[in-house]
């Protein structure tokens, strides 16, 4: 017999695209996380997750932070500091190239 959680995950993965799942997980991610962590939660391979995360950062939905050689990702809350965190000296990169910001 299949566990209820497994059935819910199976239904979620069959009714959504990989990009939709990565976006959903990113939008729930409030602390900087590794690609592998987001990939596991989204049930997507790491290379595909990285591709979609980079697209989502370009769209302004996510933000990145460098931790040595690793790039970490979390949701972008431009103009809001709901998590109360400070930069703590680490390099943070946010891209928000909306049409309005280029005019």
CATH architecture: Orthogonal Bundle
The largest pleated sheet is described as:
3 strands, antiparallel
Q: Output the strand order for the largest sheet.
A: 2-1-3
- The average pLDDT is 82
Q: Helix count? A: 5
- The gross shape turns out to be elongated
CATH topology: Arc Repressor Mutant, subunit A
Can you identify the CATH superfamily? Winged helix-like DNA-binding domain superfamily/Winged helix DNA-binding domain
Distance between the termini: 58 Å
Q: What gyration radius follows from the Cα positions, in whole Å?
A: 15 Å
Q: What would you note in describing this structure?
A:
This protein has helices spanning 4-15, 18-28, 35-42, 46-58, 99-102, and strands at 62-67, 70-75, 92-93. It is an alpha+beta fold and 103 residues long. The protein has one domain: Orthogonal Bundle (Arc Repressor Mutant, subunit A), CATH 1.10.10.10. A 3-stranded antiparallel sheet has the order 2-1-3. α2 packs across α3 (35-42) and α2 crosses α4 (46-58). The termini are far apart.
Key structural traits:
103 residues; Arc Repressor Mutant, subunit A; elongated; disordered C terminus
In short:
This protein is of the alpha+beta class.
Topology summary:
Elements: H1 4-15, H2 18-28, H3 35-42, H4 46-58, E1 62-67, E2 70-75, E3 92-93, H5 99-102
Antiparallel strand pairs: 1-2, 1-3
